[in-house]
Amino acid sequence: MDHNGVKPTGFTYRLMIRMYCALGEMNRARGVFDSMANEGFALDLTAFKMLINGYVKSKRKEETMRLAEEMLQNSKFDPLIDSPKYSKSPCEQNQQHEKGN
C-alpha cells in the first residue's frame, strides 16, 4: 500500500485501523490490518487491541473471537494477559457492551 511512492509506517497503519474502527468500517479496518502484515510490519498489541475493540463495538462476535484466536496462534500476545482492558474474554466483552456497560 503506497501513495505516489510514499509507503506508510507502522504508525500510519495503526492510525488508519483506528479511524476505520471509529467509523464502524470494520472490513476496511481488517483490510488495513492485513496489509500491514503483508507489508512486513509486526502486528503489535496495539493493532490487535484496536481491531478487537472495533469488532466488540460493532457487535461482531464471530470476528472478535476469530481475531482473538489469531492473536493467540500467530503472535506472542495473549489478549487475556497483556492488557487489563482485555482481562475478560471477547465473549464477555460483547455481552458487557450489549448491556451498555
From TrEMBL:
Protein keywords: Repeat
Record Pfam families: PPR_2
PROSITE patterns reported in the protein's UniProt record: PPR
PPR repeat feature ranges: 9-43
Taxonomic superkingdom: Eukaryota
Keyword check for Repeat: yes
Annotated spans, Disordered: 78-101
Family as reported in the entry's similarity comment: Belongs to the PPR family. P subfamily.
Official protein name in the record: Pentatricopeptide repeat-containing protein
Origin organism lineage: Eukaryota, Viridiplantae, Streptophyta, Embryophyta, Tracheophyta
